Amino acid sequence: MAGTLTSLRDDGMSHGHVPFPEPGGLVPWGDSCDGDDFYWRTGGDGPDDWTVLVAGRNDDWCEFRGSLTQYLAGLVKGTVAPDGLPPDFPVEDPAVTID
């Protein structure tokens, strides 16, 4: 995924986002089966200040100002809008898998 962001930046399609370790760079942490990529935007005083950034498959870039746990739990519970994700997200019985 880090290579994907570098390619997007090199092609002028990263909307100004840069890969880590550049200042404010993005650290990839996940992706979806629908082609969405998930990052932490680095910055502030350390990881507790990082935000979640979603690069949707349709070139939607959306930011969530909270922890990864808050983001994922909110998506599953329906208290966080699935900005940048497919309109039917999450499915009826959502699951998180680890590769």
Main attributes?
99 residues, alpha+beta, four-stranded antiparallel beta sheet, 19% helix, 20% strand
Concise summary:
With 99 residues, this protein is of the alpha+beta class.
Q: Can you walk through the features of this model?
A:
This protein has helices at 2-10, 68-77; strands spanning 26-31, 37-41, 51-55, 61-64. β3 and β4 form a beta hairpin. The mean pLDDT is 84. The protein starts with a helix and ends in a 22-residue tail after the last helix. With 99 residues, the chain is α+β, with helices and mostly antiparallel strands. A four-stranded antiparallel sheet has the order 1-2-3-4, with no helix packed on it.
The largest sheet has its strands arranged as 1-2-3-4
Classify the helix fraction into a percent range. Answer: 10-25%
Number of strands: 4
| Rg computed from alpha carbons, rounded to a whole number of angstroms | 13 Å
Q: What percent of residues are in strands?
A: 15-25%
- What is the H-and-E element order? HEEEEH
Mean pLDDT: 84
Summing up helix and strand content along with how strands pair, one would put the structural category as: alpha+beta
Q: How many separate helices?
A: 2
Shape: globular
Spans of at least 5 consecutive residues whose pLDDT stays below 50 are none
Q: Distance between termini?
A: 14 Å
Outline the biggest β-sheet: 4 strands, antiparallel
Please specify the SSE layout and strand pairing:
Blueprint: H1 2-10, E1 26-31, E2 37-41, E3 51-55, E4 61-64, H2 68-77
Antiparallel strand pairs: 1-2, 2-3, 3-4
